[in-house]
Amino acid sequence: MPVAFSSLGMFSRRTNWDRQRNRLAELLEARREEGRPVYDLTLANPTELGIEYPAGELLSALSNPQALRYQPDPKGLLSGREAVCQYYREKGIRVDPSRIFLTAGTSEAYSLIFKLLCNAGESVVVPKPSYPLLDYLAQVSDVNLGRYHLHYDHEWHLNVDHESAKGAKAIVVVNPHNPTGAFLKRREHRDIVRIAQENRLALIADEVFIDYPLVEDDRRFGSTAGDAEALTFTLNGLSKLAGLPQMKLGWIVLAGPPSLVTEAMERLEILCDTFLSVNSPVQLALPELMRTAGRVRSQILQRVKSNCETLRKATLDSPCSVLNVEGGWYAILRVPQIRSDEEWAIQLLEQTGVYLFPGYFFDFVGHKYLVVSLLPDEQTFTYSVHSLVSIIEQSR
Ligand SMILES: Cc1ncc(COP(=O)(O)O)c(C=O)c1O
Question: 210: closest CA among 224, 190, 199, 198?
């Protein structure tokens, strides 16, 4: 007879997640099983959305014979780090390769920095709303999250105050922010650095969408990679920059007061040496992958701009409005509060097959926002947006 084992006490509290699927996820699965069409406005995987990649160049870069040798370096191979320096040089920022650590994606970079800075139970402050990955990354490092708020009045404003930063070890800035697309402005950066200095906090700047501006704005701060004021960790990677999430390659650039940077580098080196997680073929390919990145990025940017314009036009004179999008891959819709965000999402899926994110998924307050990816192909996007607007109009 099979013995029934109880999992009680067997697993860590840290992984005790609520794995129950919500109603929206169940409906989506049922619809797919029945073979009914789904117009998915949550898709943000550029490799599946009709973007043309320079396949020959990418594959030949990945078959460098040097990859047959193992030459571990906790910071990553110098040739790869120099390619990252070149990326910043083109932005007018000088970065020394010794201050760069290659990682297996930006998510891993976060996790390394949390371990570097925080004891179990200590906290970092992150924006609210925010993309949900940060919650998981913090939990698996036993780090608590404090929140600072983004406010919207025709544009997004970032509001980190002493109260929200008190007792924390670091402030996370997502520049531009996911999903609002708001870029960090010079004034906001000045305030954050002051708070970081006064409270002895580090700054973690996630810049994965920084090369996706939808409009120009001379108030923007730009990249923090060359900053000298607070201890700063700037994160980016191939996932968004080159539209290559499958390569699993990101990086951390350290900047700030020299004594803190040296101490951080020495500790980070041991942390990275413990895992040596970035594979050699992708490190060796990095210079070429960075060279081809612009061609992929310009297609993605074109797609994002075109879909954003479609969304703006479709919602003109309608009961829903699009919040100002400065950059990134997402747009936020404000919908009438006659139903909650989840109820709208369910109704749209049931009646039209359009699948999108209810705002609560990103921790928006007020249940009046829906979030859409601007990456789906233009035809699907146009059809979906018109269906969405007509359902909302009919429901008034
Ligand atoms: C703002 C932001 N940062 C980091 C990541 C993680 O990127 P990576 O694929 O490099 O781990 C994501 C993923 O969507 C993201 O949206």
Answer: 224
CA of 107 to the centre of ligand 1 (A): 6
- Domain-by-domain residue ranges, the chain? 22-52+294-394, 68-292
Q: Domain spanning 68-292 has what CATH number?
A: 3.40.640.10
Q: Looking at residue 339, what DSSP letter applies?
A: S
Could you report the per-residue pLDDT of 150-193, keeping only the tens digit for each?
A: 999 999 999 898 888 999 999 999 999 999 999 999 999 999 99
Residue whose CA is at the smallest distance from ligand 1 atom 7: 106
Distance between the two ends of the chain, CA-based, in angstroms? 59
Peptide bond into 129 cis (omega under 30): yes
DSSP class of residue 132? T
What is the pLDDT, as a whole number, of residue 228? 85
Q: How far is the CA of 127 from the centre of ligand 1 (A)?
A: 15
Asked whether 253 and 87 are in contact (CB, 8 A), the reply is: no
Ligand 1 pocket: which of 101, 108, 208, 374 to mutate (most atoms within 8 A of CB) = 208
**Distance between CA atoms of residues 244 and 116, nearest Å:** 27
C-alpha distance from residue 67 to each of 38, 205, 245, 291, 315 (Å): 42, 31, 20, 19, 51
Alpha carbon distance 248, 260 (integer Å): 28
Question: Which residue CA neighbors atom 2 of ligand 1 most closely?
Answer: 208
3-state secondary structure of 67: helix
Topology of domain 22-52+294-394, CATH: Aspartate Aminotransferase, domain 1 (3.90.1150)
Q: What is the DSSP letter of 174?
A: E
Q: Measured in angstroms, how far is the CA atom of residue 189 from the centroid of ligand 1?
A: 21
Query: Are 234 and 255 in contact, with CB atoms under 8 Å apart?
Result: yes
Domains 22-52+294-394 and 68-292 share a fold: no
pTM exceeding the 0.85 threshold for the entire prediction: yes
